Amino acid sequence: MATTTPTPHNAANPGDIAKTVLMPGDPLRAKFIAETYLENPVCFNTVRNMLGYTGTYQGKRVSVMGSGMGMPSIGIYSYELYHFYDVETIIRIGSAGGIADHVHVRDVVIGIGACTDSNYGSQFHLPGAFAPIGDFTLAQKAVQYAQEHKIHTIVGNVLSSDTFYGDDPDALPAWKKMGVLAVEMESAALYMNAARAGKRALCLLTISDCPFTGESLSAEERQTSFREMMEIALAIAE
User: Fold this and answer.
1) pTM of this prediction?
2) Enzyme class, one word (predicted)?
């Protein structure tokens, strides 16, 4: 595939995007991060309202861009960032539903592995099941920063699901019994794309709801209140 930029999904030119990209699902969360944390942020993309910005944070050049919802969407954006824009690291900063008993609203989960019910990995024609994992060094730095700043984090396996409104009531309990911490919709595809490209990725998640207990945050809280997760991501950006 030709590596021409801009792409049909990203108006950025070569050099507009930093080596590290923070990637929330919600483009308005990307806008919030850019305006709240970055110095001199410049918007490099408005195509499909998938906002992207580049600025500096504590002297480091950092970009932030929305991914949209689901593995097909983050699959497109992360592929282009890795292959067309020379991005080395993508840190997903998203929301998730907590399913483990010890996971609660506003907890920060570091998804070191991502189970999935998706067929996304079939494109790689592997002779077995691929285990999508995050970058250990990034995860280690995230844990260290969180400990130093007294931020409660939980490290473990998450589920990247293709369905938000699932028809099988037994699905989440089945994943829960295997020790999966939380459910979201993007990380497995990001980890697979990173592995295929020889690049790095990590998934940081703030728990926005707990389907088994009914705990939840409002849409506005999801957009603006995940500061601890955002600050961990910015701190480990290189």
Assistant:
1) 0.96
2) transferase
